[in-house]
Write a structure and sequence with these properties.
The protein is of the alpha/beta class. Helix content is 45%, strand content 12%. It has a five-stranded parallel beta sheet with strand order 1-2-3-4-5, with helices on both faces.
Amino acid sequence: MWLAGEGLSACQALAQFLKLGGEELVAVGECGLDPKAHASAELQTESLLTQLKLAEDFCLPLILHGRRPVHDETLKLLRRVRPSRGGVIHGFSGSLQQARHYIELGFKLGVGGVITYPRANKTRTVFRELELEHLLLETDSPDMPLAGYQGQRNEPLRVVEVFAELCRIRGETQQTVGGQLEQNVQDLFGI
């Protein structure tokens, strides 16, 4: 760790890093709530609130980790400390209603390998129904393997397959989808 031995908490170290980071920093994250994590729910909530404040203080969007069982709790926290730059909900797999709530709060939704699984009907439907300007493409490499690659390390190159599947389930051309996804990245992260 770059600040090891300085006696700083993880959030204090993050604040120091953001102060030193300069223009190459484009977001705060990945942060969020995870019921499978070892930290207590209270500690996770406190840490997330601190990171929400840091994102606001440094005028950066967030990359939020959100597993299905904590979407409602995450939305409550975002309503309490609403980040003005929004962000992206990484690997979104919630309901259409939850997706719309995140969008209302200025977030885009990360489209990952889960859409390559035919049995992921709910998630595939969400990404077919949402307006394209609310989506971002991601791989979650090395995790989140695509259909046909179960048990293997996910590679960034496979984002091409996620992209092709998104175009297919939406019934839109690669030019249309790709152009809008590129614009979404520019709008959110300023790159």
